Amino acid sequence: MSSADPGISSVLAETRVFSPSAEFVANARLNAEKLAALHAAAASDHIGFWGDLAKQELAWQTPFRTVLDDSAAPNYRWFADGRTNASVNCLDRHLGARGEKIAIRFEGDAGTTRTLTYKQLHAEVCKLANGLKSLGVAKGDRVIVYLPHTPEAVIALLACARIGATHSVVFGGFSAASLKDRIEDAGAKWVITADGNMRGGNLIDLKKTVDEALAAGGKSIEKVIVLRHGGNAVSMAAGRDLWWHELLSAQSERCEPEWVEAEHPLFLLYTSGSTGKPKGIQHSTGGYLLWAHLTAQWIFDLKEDDVFWCTADVGWVTGHSYVCYGPLSNGATVMMYEGVPTYPDAGRFWKICQQHGVTIFYTAPTAIRALMKLGDDWPKQYDLSKLRLLGSVGEPINPEAWMWYHRTIGQGKLPIVDTWWQTETGAAMIAPIPGAMPTKPGSCTRPLPGIFADIVDESGTPVQGEEAGGYLVITKPWPGMLRTIWGDNARYQKAYYGQFDNRYYVAGDGAHRDKDGYYWIMGRVDDVLNVSGHRLGTMEIESALVSHPRVAEAAVVGKPHEIKGEAICAFVICKGQRPEGADADALIKELREHVAKEIGAIAKPDDIRLADGLPKTRSGKIMRRLLRSIARGEEITQDVSTLENPAIVKQLISKT
Ligand code: WT7
Q1: Whether residue 1 has pLDDT greater than 60
Q2: Whether residue 495 has its Cβ less than 6 Å from ligand 1
Q3: Ligand 1 atom with minimal separation from the 419 CA
Q4: Which of 334, 349, 323, 327 is nearest to 409 (CA)?
Q5: What gap in Å lies between CA 584 and CA 534, rounded to an integer?
Q6: Is 625 exposed, middle or buried (0-12, 13-18, 19+ CB in 10 A)?
Q7: Number of neighbours of residue 204 by Cβ within 10 angstroms
Q8: From atom 27 of ligand 1, which residue's Cα is the shortest distance away?
Q9: Contacts for 104 with CB less than 8 Å, ≥ 6 apart
C-alpha cells in the first residue's frame, strides 16, 4: 500500500499463535504479570510512570523536577531541568562491577577479531573526547561520523556525547553528494572517517568520498580525522586532515564528562520523507537514552551474560539504539560485525553466532529472506544452541520468512520479537515482551508500556473492527520521540502533527488491529519506499534522476521484491528525442549509476522505463497509483478517462 488509501482493508489471514516456552517465561525479566503492572502504571499515571523510570534507570548529575513540559506542544520537552551525560550512563557507571566485562566483541570483514572491555572502551572514548576538545569541538557543535561498522564508530558516538557535541552519522554507503548535503545542513566543522574498509571483500574508499564531498562543498568543515583501518592509500590535505592514532597518541584516558541538559541534542540522523530533502531528525539526550535503555531491557530480555547482536550498521537508527546506547547503557556485551551476511559464504552470520556465543540475534526481514533463499544447509552447519531470542526490524516480516526464522534459526522454540519503530521514535514502540505474551507471524503485537497507539481514519476517528485499516498514530508524547527536524521546526510540526490538528503523532504507516489488540503494519501511506529495511523518498530519487542532463521528468514508484521488500521502478521522460534500442539501454545504465552517485548504491532503480510522457490528471498531478499498477504489471482497472493524456497509458503498458 502506498499513497493515502482511505478504507484500507487487510487481506492477510494469519492465525498461528506461538507462546514462549515455560523455561523462557520462568527466566524472563518481565512475565505477563509484571508487564500488566507496567501497563497499568502507565495508564493510571502517564507522567509518574515516566518520571519513576527515568529516576530509577538513568544516572543524573542534576535530578529533574519536571517530567514533561508540553507548553510548546508538539515540541515536547522531557526531564528538561535535569542534567546527565549519555557516555557516563553507557560507560562510567559500569566500571565498578563490569570494568573487565567485554563491552564489544568485533569481527572484521576478513575474520579478524577484537574485544574491548568496558574499561578499555571508556579509555578510548576519553582519549578521542580529549582529542576532539583539542581541536576545538565544544558542546553543541555537530560532528559528522562517516565510519565503517567497527568499534571506532561506537567510540566516536560516545566521545561526542562525552563532551556534549551532537553527532550526525552518515551511513558509509551514502555518496559524496549525500554526505556533502548532510554536512551543509548540519553546519558541521568536523568529520570523523576512515581511510577505507572492506565489505564482502570489496574496498570501500571512504576517505576518497569525503574528499569528493569537500571538493564539491561542505565549506564549514575545518578538520577531518582519519582512522587507519582499510590500509588503502589516501591523500591527506595539509592543515585539514589528521590521523586518528596521531591525535589520540598523547591524550589522557580520563576526560571529565560535560553534563548536559536532558533536552540537549545527542544526535541528528538524516532520513527520507515524502519531499526531496532528507530530514535531520533531532534526538535528545535524556529522553532518547531512557527509551533506548528500557526497550533494550524489556524487548530483548537482556541479562548479564548475554551476547547481543544487532546486525544493523551504526549508520542507521537501529545501530544507534541497539548497537550503542541501548545495550551499553544496560552494561551488556555487544557483537559487531563489519561485513555482509553472505561473505565469504551464506554461512557467515551463523558462523559468527557459533564462534562468539551470540544469545540474542536481531536482524532485518530482507536479510532473513535472502538467507532463507540460500537454504537450510548453511545454518545447519553451525551450532546455534546458544541463541535464546530472535528479533526483526525494518519492515513487515512476511509470515513465510517468520516461520523459516522460527524453525531453522530458532530451532522451533525461540521467541521472535518483531519490533515496529522509526528513526523518529528513537527506539521500538510496538513490539512483544517475549516472556509475557504469545506472538503471531507478521504482527509486531502490542504497544510497549507507556506508548499509546491507535489506528484512525481520514477524519482522525479511531477505526473499529478487525479488518479496518487506517493511519497508525501515537496519541501521547513519549520520552524517546524526535524533538524537531534540524533547522526546520515548521516541517517537524507539519510532517508529524499536521494531519490531525496536533492531536496525534502520525507515523506515516498504515495498520490494522486484530481482536487481541495486536497490530499489523501494512506499509507506508506516503511517497516513501522501504527498500531492504531502509526508507527512501520517491522525491529524492526523482530529483537525482532529473539532475541528469538528459532527463526532463521522472516519477518513481515501488513494486514488491522478493528479497528487498520493495524494488524501485522509475519512469523517465527524456529531453529531446527518446532513445531506443542499444541507446536506450546505455542511457538506462548511465541513469542507474547517476542515482548511485547522487544518493548511494542503495537508491539505484531496479527498473527504469523511458517514455514520452507521464500519466497526469488535468490539474497536472502524476497518477502514482496508476504507475504503481503498471510497474507491477497489473491489469489497469482504474478509470483513466480523466487523464490529461490517456494515450500515454497504452505506451507505458506496452513497455512492460
Ligand atoms: C519505517 C521506519 C526502525 C528502524 C529501522 C527503519 C517500517 C520498521 C517495522 C516492522 C513493519 C516496519 C515502517 C516505518 N518498519 N520496522 N517491525 N514492521 N514495518 O527505520 O528508516 O526510520 O523506517 O520502517 O514503515 O515507518 P526507518
Answers
A1: no
A2: no
A3: 17
A4: 349
A5: 29
A6: middle
A7: 18
A8: 422
A9: 115, 116, 121, 151, 154, 333, 334, 335, 336
CA of 397 to the centre of ligand 1 (A): 11
Model pLDDT for residues 438-480, shown as the tens digit of each residue: 999 999 999 999 999 999 999 999 999 887 889 999 999 999 9
CB atoms within 10 A of CB 101: 16
Q: Which three cell numbers stand for residue 101?
A: 566485562
Span 603-641, pLDDT tens digits: 999 999 999 999 988 778 888 889 999 999 988 877 777
For residue 420, the CA-to-ligand 1 centroid distance in Å is 6
Q: Judge contact between 267 and 168, C-beta under 8 A.
A: yes
Instruction: Name the pTM for this structure.
Output: 0.94
Has residue 350 got a pLDDT over 90? yes
**Predicted local distance difference test score (pLDDT) of residue 638:** 77
Q: How far is CA 655 from CA 571, 580, 609, 631, in A?
A: 11, 12, 8, 10
C-alpha 534 to ligand 1 mean position (Å): 8
Burial classification of residue 472, based on how many CB atoms lie within 10 Å of its CB (0-12 exposed, 13-18 middle, 19 or more buried): buried
Nearest Cα to Cα of residue 170 among 325, 338, 315, 339: 315
The response to whether residue 359 sits with its C-beta less than 6 Å from ligand 1 reads no
CA 612 to ligand 1 centroid distance, Å: 35
Average pLDDT score, the chain: 95
In whole angstroms, give the CA distance from residue 646 to residue 443: 40
Averaged over 209-227, what is the pLDDT?
98
Report which of 194, 87, 105 is spatially closest to residue 151, judged by C-alpha positions.
105
141 lines ligand 1 (CB under 6 A): no
Which atom belonging to ligand 1 lies closest to the Cα atom of 534? 21
φ, ψ for residue 129, nearest 5 deg: -60, -45
Question: Which residue minimizes the CA distance to atom 1 of ligand 1?
Answer: 422
Integer-rounded Cα Rg, in Å, for the chain is: 24
What is the CA(395)–ligand 1 centre distance, in A?
5
Amino acid 5: pLDDT: 42
pLDDT confidence tier of residue 8, bands split at 50, 70 and 90: low
According to DSSP, the β-strands at 190-194 and 223-227 are parallel
- Is the pLDDT confidence value at 7 over 70? no
To the nearest 10 degrees (0 to 180), the angle between helices 286-300 and 46-57 is: 90
Q: How far is the CA of 653 from the centre of ligand 1 (A)?
A: 32
pLDDT digits (tens, 9 = 90+) for 140-170: 999 999 999 999 999 999 999 999 999 999 9
Question: Which is nearest to 227 in space by CA: 256, 197, 204?
Answer: 197
pLDDT for 299-349, tens place per residue?
A: 999 999 999 999 999 999 999 999 999 999 999 999 999 999 999 999 999
Q: Is 545 in the pocket of ligand 1 (CB under 6 A)?
A: no
